[in-house]
Structure formats: structure tokens, C-alpha cells
Amino acid sequence: MSQISKAERSPSLRPDAPGKPADRSSQADQAYVQLKQLILDGTLPAGAQMLELEAAARLNMSRTPVREAMVRLRQEGIVEIRPRHGMRVLPISADDMRDIYEIMTALEGAAAEAVAQRGLSNRQISALQAPVRDMDKALEQEDLQAWAAADERFHLTLVELSGNQRLIQMVAQLWDQAHRARLLTLRLRPTPTDSNREHEAMVQAIIDGKPQEARAIHEEHRRRAGKMLVELLERLGLTQI
């Protein structure tokens, strides 16, 4: 799973042992998860600044784990750290999104091919089919937020099934960077019925053991989605988000 989900599964803190290294690590994980969520859900938009002291007070923890969390976010390209100013959320441009989707297309396409080549157990197939069903249900209920969550779950599950840990980590970070643009434009895009059909075709190619077909479907799916998103950002004049 992505780094966020790993951190979320961390054991809860023990307040009676604040000095242990394990506690500091767990606090840093929690600070990382919470700060990242504030950025991904738009609470801290592009350009927003937050001092270490301010973040520590907001998260009700000391500055040391907050500082470690900010360093992790900087390493992922989500924020920059400025002396005496804490962290600043970095904006994403339409050109950034074009680059991000180009990389995601290649990486996720490779994952789709690898998964189809290797084959899946019935349990793994069910795990891949579940978010596709959830996407169909979300569209029936006209719940775009639920659709977007299921869409993200589908793509991350597909990548995880490749078993390539480096690829999983890279794609998770790219998804984090793309999340803000997807959230911002979610209700401005056409109803994603075509996307659902492409997901179904992709899963079928994987079940049928057709690696090249699975990759081709996925790459075309990603190219189309990326092109639509970038064109929408440019049409709205959103040079940075």
C-alpha cells in the first residue's frame, strides 16, 4: 500500500513513554499523514504556509516529529521548507500535470502488463473487480466523490498487484501530486462512463492473460484522462493549483 496507509496502520502512541524512539517515529508518521491530508483535501491550498510551531499546536505534538514529517513531504515534492517560515505547499501547473500523467501512463501500463503476465488468484481478481463495481454504483447514484475514491483505489490496487515495491511507491507519490487537480476538476469533467468501461476491459484482459492488450488499454485510458485534465486546467486559466 501507499505510505499513507502504512502510517495509518501504525500502532497508537503510548503517552506514558514519550521518550522512546519508536514513539517519536510513530508521532512523525502521524504528523506526516495528517499534514498530507490537509494538503490533499485542500485545507492547505497551493502557496499556504505553516510554521513548525503552528503545525505542532494544530496536531497537538512536539516540533520534532512535525519537522520530520515536513522533510518527508519535501522529499515527495509536495512542499518546500523555508527557514523561519516552516513549510509552503507547492503549486502544481498544467505542465506539471502533463508530466505527471506521462510518467503514470508508463508506470501503470507496465504494472498492468506485469499483472496480466503473472496471472492473479481468484481473491486478487475480486480485489481488482471490487472498485470497478463501486465506480458503477457511484455513477448510478451520481456520487462523483465516491467514484473518484473508487477510481483511485482501482489504480493503486492494480499497481500493488504487480508486486514491484519501487513502482508502487513511485505511483503512490504521483497520485498524491495529481490528487489536488483531480479533486478541483471533478465536477467540471464529463460523466466518466467511458472510464468505467475501460476499467472493465482492462480487468478482462488481465483475467484472459493478455499482457500487451492490458497495457495498451491502460495506456490509452491514462493518455485520454491526462489530456482531458490538462486541457480543462488550461481552459479554466488555472496555470497553478
From TrEMBL:
InterPro entries: GntR_C, TF_FadR/GntR_C, Tscrpt_reg_HTH_GntR, WH-like_DNA-bd_sf, WH_DNA-bd_sf. One of its GO terms (molecular function) is DNA binding. Pfam families: FCD, GntR. PROSITE patterns: HTH_GNTR. It comes from the Bacteria. SUPFAM superfamilies: GntR ligand-binding domain-like, Winged helix' DNA-binding domain. Transmembrane segments: none annotated. Residues 1-11 have a biased composition (Basic and acidic residues). Residues 1-28 are annotated as: Disordered. Gene3D superfamilies: GntR ligand-binding domain-like (1.20.120.530), Winged helix-like DNA-binding domain superfamily/Winged helix DNA-binding domain (1.10.10.10). The keyword DNA-binding applies. The keyword Lipid biosynthesis does not apply. Keywords: DNA-binding, Transcription, Transcription regulation. This is GntR family transcriptional regulator. The lineage of its organism: Bacteria, Pseudomonadati, Pseudomonadota, Alphaproteobacteria, Hyphomicrobiales.
